[in-house]
Amino acid sequence: MAYYNRFDAPPPDPVLLRELTEQQRVLQQRIIIQKPDFELKLIAGCDSSFIGEDTILSVFVLLTYPGLEVVEKVWHHGPVELPYIPGFLAFREAPNLLKTYEKLQQKPDLIMVDGHGISHPRKLGIATHVGLHLNKPTMGVAKKVLVGKYTEPAAAKGSVSPLVYKNEVIANVLRTRDNVKPVFVSPGHLMDVASATEIAMACAIKYKLPEPTRLADHYAAVFKSEVK
Prior knowledge:
Layout: H1 14-28, E1 42-51, E2 55-64, E3 70-79, H2 89-101, E4 110-114, H3 126-134, E5 138-142, E6 160-165, E7 168-174, E8 183-189, H4 193-203, H5 211-227
Parallel strand pairs: 1-4, 4-5
Antiparallel strand pairs: 1-2, 2-3, 5-8, 6-7, 7-8
């Protein structure tokens, strides 16, 4: 997910920080990590991008699985309601993502989010937020580590190593192509690490990023040009 990280921005309101932290504490109690019980036929990828500092544009791309043929793509843009606060990005991006999701004519069995699931200091990455709000299986595929430690996986495609935080495996570090930087695959909600990793690998057919999030990122740029 793209965002502005302004070093000259004022420090966040401490009252707002306490409120958001408490919301995350409550939401955390509802997270379910489990082997999914769906038959995966439709998978969605989603991503958000910013237009300036006050407008967010979100995209959902719906694909068949395992064929990965595009069935539908929708987008929505609106005002940004919160400033960027590290660790609370989901509160900034999730509202517009949820409005975008409503535009889908068909609903996916699984949502793959460009970002983190439980691989977050309080397990509340954007994929987890979306999963909890929709009560839908979600997983995150992130380009950078947010929290935890890992050993670099082997250079070959398909190599995996665990990302560990507080003695818990919160994600897998997955090499989707030979000799390219790995991605960080974590469950969001109603999903487990192993299943998320298997699906991410199955969707990484040509590029570093799995097709659902790669296409969501691509169409975010396309639709952004239309808004401008």
